[in-house]
Amino acid sequence: MTHQIAVIPGDGIGQEVTPAAVSVLESFDIDFEFVEADAGDAVEAETGAALPEETYELAATADATLFGAAGESAADVILPLREAVDSFVNVRPARAYPGVDALRPETDLVFLRENTEGVYSGHESRLSDDLSTLTRVVTDSASKRLATFACDYVSDRGLEGFTVAHKANVMRETDGRFRDAVAEVADEHGVETDEVLMDAFATHICLDPTQFDVVVCPNLAGDVLSDLAAGLVGGLGLLPSANIGPDRALFEPVHGTAPDIAGEGIANPAAAILSAAMLLEYLGYDEEGKTVRSAVESVLETGPRTGDLGGEASTDEMTTAIIDAL
Ligand code: NAI
Ligand code: MG
Questions:
Q1: Is 274 a pocket residue for ligand 1 (Cβ < 6 Å)?
Q2: Which residues are catalytic?
Q3: What is the pLDDT of residue 121?
Q4: Which atom of ligand 1 has the smallest separation from the CA of 258?
Q5: Residue 262 CA, ligand 1 centroid: distance in Å
Q6: How much is the ipTM here?
Q7: Stretch 243-248: mean pLDDT, rounded?
């Protein structure tokens, strides 16, 4: 079976780390068809559209998409791309690796972030010179869809349950609905949950991240708390993510275009390659995904490493070492 993969490198180091991820995928004997498309600042400057219609269409029909990063136009690119795959959950593992300087080397957890609503649903208004408002959207259906995914996620991995981070003590209606909907689904699936207020979670994760395995959160909380976790594990060059929809998915490093180092060939390819590992697992190639993760892990430990990790290797040298370690 051929898997069509949309490859959208975007701007800056997206152009450097996305080909690295593709070359890792190419080293397996899997029938991939890679189709490349443009998005981001460069194509916007040329054509006026940061996300050309054919790129949107490609992501909406391909089996999976590998995205790099977009610059100033990021919001105009990534939000519609997530919509193209109808992505209702953003999966963000935050894990520290041996050999990488981390504030909390014992960190190993996964955020399952609601990806469609909350305060990011775009309902903002300017009501007067003095007053602007934002409507926070929470539905039972989106909360339950996320919770069902979370239940399957922990069951597949032999885990007992997950933590729900919310702020239902203040946002009683919206986060109250979120918390109750998630609890109802977990109950039906026989999955254990515990709850934590999202502000307290920020403190707990700094003091002892080992308390958490899988954390389910509303959109904004998931965005902020997973970036906090990125700080604990040694920075952005290492964090992959997956935007999962019912029929397709989009995989991207958490980092942006890194304009300070773009074009020099020294970007860390690990986050993009770990995103490719998530893509392999999504398509059912669990063994291959695990192999990629182990290869990245061994190279992080022994080198060669890129400059952000204290090494002197180029993107190509680190990528070649990872492919050799497969
Ligand atoms: P950034 O992630 O691009 O860079 C932050 C810092 O981390 C920089 O010092 C950069 O050199 C370093 N860094 C990031 N990834 C790295 C890697 N793979 N290897 C080595 N060092 C790495 O975030 P920043 O500076 O806030 O944003 C730069 C641009 O990226 C902006 O235009 C922003 O809009 C865009 N952006 C796009 C995203 C996306 O497309 N999903 C996400 C975040 C930012
Ligand atoms: Mg963010």
A1: no
A2: 120, 167, 199, 223, 227
A3: 82
A4: 3
A5: 10
A6: 0.98
A7: 96
Q: Assess whether the C-beta atom of 310 lies below 6 angstroms from ligand 1.
A: no
**Both structure tokens of 210:** 């080992």
Cβ(70) – ligand 1 distance below 6 Å: yes
CB atoms within 10 A of CB 32: 18
Task: Decide: 52 and 23 in contact? Cβ < 8 Å.
Answer: no
Query: Average of pLDDT values for 85-113?
Result: 94
Average pLDDT of the chain to the nearest whole number: 96
Tokens of 309: 């990790």
Please give the structure tokens belonging to residue 223. Answer: 């965005």
55: left (phi over 0), alpha (psi -120 to 50) or beta: alpha
**ω before 304 within 30° of 0 (cis)?**
yes
Span 185-239, pLDDT tens digits: 999 999 999 999 999 999 999 999 999 999 999 999 999 999 999 999 987 779 9
pTM to 2 decimal places: 0.94
Residue nearest ligand 1's atom 10 by CA: 258
Distances (CA, A) of 93 to 100, 123, 288: 16, 29, 18
Task: Answer for the pair 176, 168: CB distance below 8 angstroms, yes or no.
Answer: yes
